[in-house]
C-alpha cells in the first residue's frame, strides 16, 4: 500500500506535543478518511454520511468538553502548588490511595480492642449525663480468722516463743513474714525456724544477721530435706567468706534445693554464685534481685548450669550486669522459663529480648520489664505475638510506650491476672478498652501515676472487673468521688485499694471509706502499715 493512501501522511508534519494537538489531529484524520471514501461498501451512502457527520459533531463536542475539563484541573493544580509554595507553613500532606485504603477497615476485620474503643466513644455522653447503676457504698465488715489473729499475736510477742516443733511449714512462713514486717527478725528466730528439719526456711528480712550467724544456720539445718531457702536482705552476711566456710564444713551443699531467693545480697559475687550453683543441682527458681556485684558472668553461669531446667529467674536491679554481647545469647539458653524479671537493667532493649521472645517464651507466665527505659512498642508487639500464656506483666515506668503497646497486649495476652502500668502515658480510652476485653480475668491492677486515668476507666472497672482483688489508683487525680463509689460498689471481690495522693476526695467520704471491708492505704485516716499481710503481690511472688 502506498504511503499516500494514509491520511495526512507527510514527513513535514510537525510533532504532536500536547493532548489538545492529538485530539485536533484525530479529527483531521477523520475528515480526510471521509473525503477519500475509506468507509466503503454501504448501500445508502447519503444516510450514512449524515450519520457520520452527526457522530463527528458529537465527538468534537465530547473532545472539546474533555479538553476544557483537563485545562481546569491543570490550572487548579498549578494554582494550588503556587499557593502552597507561598504559604509553606500551611502545606497539606496528601495521602496516597494505598494509605487511604489501609485506613478504611471493614467492621468484620476490626480487632476486639478497636471495637471496644469505638463503643467507649459512643457511651461517653451516656456516662456524663446518665447513671444506670446504683453507686451507694454498702459498708460491710468481716471478722479476721482465728489463725490470722493468732499469727499476729505471736509475731508481736515472738520473744516469748520457745519452740516451733510440729508447726507446719506454711504457718512458720506466715509467722516469719509478719516478724520480718516488724523489723525484728534476728538470729534467735532463725534458730527456731530451722529446728525440726523443715523443708522450707523463709526469712524476708535478714538485715541483722552477720557472716558467722549465716554459716551456723547453713550448717545446722537439715540440708537433705531443705527444698526452699529464702534469705532476703542478707547483704552483710552473704559474702565469699560465708560461702567458702560453709562448703568447707558441708561440701555436699544443698542436694534437694529447688528454690533459692537471695534478694538484696549486695555482697554476693559471681564466684560465690558459681559455688552455690554447683552444690544445688536441682535448682529451678532463683531470685537475685538487687545483687549489685553480679555481672554478665553470673547469667552465663546460670545458663550453662541450668539452661534446660530453670523455670524462674529474677536478676532485676543487678546494676553490675552491663551491656554485653553475651547477655542475649545467655538469655536465649533458658528453654523452660515460666518467670523472668530483668527490671531496671540498662542492657535490656528490643533487640536483646527479641530472640528470647520469639523462640523461648511460649510457656512464660510472669514477666517484669519495669524501668527498662529502652523498651518500645516493638517489644510489646513480640510479647503479644509470642507470650500467649502470660498471666502477670510489669511494665512500670516505660516512657517510650504508646497506646499501641496496650493494644498488642490486649490482642495477644488473653489470660492476664496481674498488670502494672505505673507511670505510663496510656490514655483513658485505651485503658478502658483493655479492661473491656481482658479485665474479666484480672486479679491485680496498678494504675499508679497514670495521669490520664478518668471516668472511662472507672466505668470499665465497675462493669467488667468482678474478680479484681488488688487495685492501685494512687495519684489518679482525674477520678472523682462518684467514680470511686462506682468501683467499690461493683468490684465485689476487691480486698485492697491504694489511694495515695487523693486530695480530691472530701473528708466525710474518707470517714465512710475507713469503715468499709476493703483495706485502704494512702488516705489520711488509714495507717500505712495496717495491712502489710494484704500488700500487693509482686510479679513472680508465687514462685518465692
TrEMBL record:
InterPro entries: FBXL15_LRR (IPR057207), Leu-rich_rpt_Cys-con_subtyp (IPR006553), LRR_dom_sf (IPR032675)
GO cellular component, one term: SCF ubiquitin ligase complex
All residue ranges annotated as the F-box/LRR-repeat protein 15-like leucin rich repeat domain in the record: 375-525
Biological process according to GO: nucleotide-excision repair; response to UV-C; SCF-dependent proteasomal ubiquitin-dependent protein catabolic process
Regions annotated as coiled coil: none
SUPFAM superfamilies xref list: RNI-like
Name used for this protein in its record: At5g21900
Organism: Arabidopsis thaliana
Amino acid at each position: 500500500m502506498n504511503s499516500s493512501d494514509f491520511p495526512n501522511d507527510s514527513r513535514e508534519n510537525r510533532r504532536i506535543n500536547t493532548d489538545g494537538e492529538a485530539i485536533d489531529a484525530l479529527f483531521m484524520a477523520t475528515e480526510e478518511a471521509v473525503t477519500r471514501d475509506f468507509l466503503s461498501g454501504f448501500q445508502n451512502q447519503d444516510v450514512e454520511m449524515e450519520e457520520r457527520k452527526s457522530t463527528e459533531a458529537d465527538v468534537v463536542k465530547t473532545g472539546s468538553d474533555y479538553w476544557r475539563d483537563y485545562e481546569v484541573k491543570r490550572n487548579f493544580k498549578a494554582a494550588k502548588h503556587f499557593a502552597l509554595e507561598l504559604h509553606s507553613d500551611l502545606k497539606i500532606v496528601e495521602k496516597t490511595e494505598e494509605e487511604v485504603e489501609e485506613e478504611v477497615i471493614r467492621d468484620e476485620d476490626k480487632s476486639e480492642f478497636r471495637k471496644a474503643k469505638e463503643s467507649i466513644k459512643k457511651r461517653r455522653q451516656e456516662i456524663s449525663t446518665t447513671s444506670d447503676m446504683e453507686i451507694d457504698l454498702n459498708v460491710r465488715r468481716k471478722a479476721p480468722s482465728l489463725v490470722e489473729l493468732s499469727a499476729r499475736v505471736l509475731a508481736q510477742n515472738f520473744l516469748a516463743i520457745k519452740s516451733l516443733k510440729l508447726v507446719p511449714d506454711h504457718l512458720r512462713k506466715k509467722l516469719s513474714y509478719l516478724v520480718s514486717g516488724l523489723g525484728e527478725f534476728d538470729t534467735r528466730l532463725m534458730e527456731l525456724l530451722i529446728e525440726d528439719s523443715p523443708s522450707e526456711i523463709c526469712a524476708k528480712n535478714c538485715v541483722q544477721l552477720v557472716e558467722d550467724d549465716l554459716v551456723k544456720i547453713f550448717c545446722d539445718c537439715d540440708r537433705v530435706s531443705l527444698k526452699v531457702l529464702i534469705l532476703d536482705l542478707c547483704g552483710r552476711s552473704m559474702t565469699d567468706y560465708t560461702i567458702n566456710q560453709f562448703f568447707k564444713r558441708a561440701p555436699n551443699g544443698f542436694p534437694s534445693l529447688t528454690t533459692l531467693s537471695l534478694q538484696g545480697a549486695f555482697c554476693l559475687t559471681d564466684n560465690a554464685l558459681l559455688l552455690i550453683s554447683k552444690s544445688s543441682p536441682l535448682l529451678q527458681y532463683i531470685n537475685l534481685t538487687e545483687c549489685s556485684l553480679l555481672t554478665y558472668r553470673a547469667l552465663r553461669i546460670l545458663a550453662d548450669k541450668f539452661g534446660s531446667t530453670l523455670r524462674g529467674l529474677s536478676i532485676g536491679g543487678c546494676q553490675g550486669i552491663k551491656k554485653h554481647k553475651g547477655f542475649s545469647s545467655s538469655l536465649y539458653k533458658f528453654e523452660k522459663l515460666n518467670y523472668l524479671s530483668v527490671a531496671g537493667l540498662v542492657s535490656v532493649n528490643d533487640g536483646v529480648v527479641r530472640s528470647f521472645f520469639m523462640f523461648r517464651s511460649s510457656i512464660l507466665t510472669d514477666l517484669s520489664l519495669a524501668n527498662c527505659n529502652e523498651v518500645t512498642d516493638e517489644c510489646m508487639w513480640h510479647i503479644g505475638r509470642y507470650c500467649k500464656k502470660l498471666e502477670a506483666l510489669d511494665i512500670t515506668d516505660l516512657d517510650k510506650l504508646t497506646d499501641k503497646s496496650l493494644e498488642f497486649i490486649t490482642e495477644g495476652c488473653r489470660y492476664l491476672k496481674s498488670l502494672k502500668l505505673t507511670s505510663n502515658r496510656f490514655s483513658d480510652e485505651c485503658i478502658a478498652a483493655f479492661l473491656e476485653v481482658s479485665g474479666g480475668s484480672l486479679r491485680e491492677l496498678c494504675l499508679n501515676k497514670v495521669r490520664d486515668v478518668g471516668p472511662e476507666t472507672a466505668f470499665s472497672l465497675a462493669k467488667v472487673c468482678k474478680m479484681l482483688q488488688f487495685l492501685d489508683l494512687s495519684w489518679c487525680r482525674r477520678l472523682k468521688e462518684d467514680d470511686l463509689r462506682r468501683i467499690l460498689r461493683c468490684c465485689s471481690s476487691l480486698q485492697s485499694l491504694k489511694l495515695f495522693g487523693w486530695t480530691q476526695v472530701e473528708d466525710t467520704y474518707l470517714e465512710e471509706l475507713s469503715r468499709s471491708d476493703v483495706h485502704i492505704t494512702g488516705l489520711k485516716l488509714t495507717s500505712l502499715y495496717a495491712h502489710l499481710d494484704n500488700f500487693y503481690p509482686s510479679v513472680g511472688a508465687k514462685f518465692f
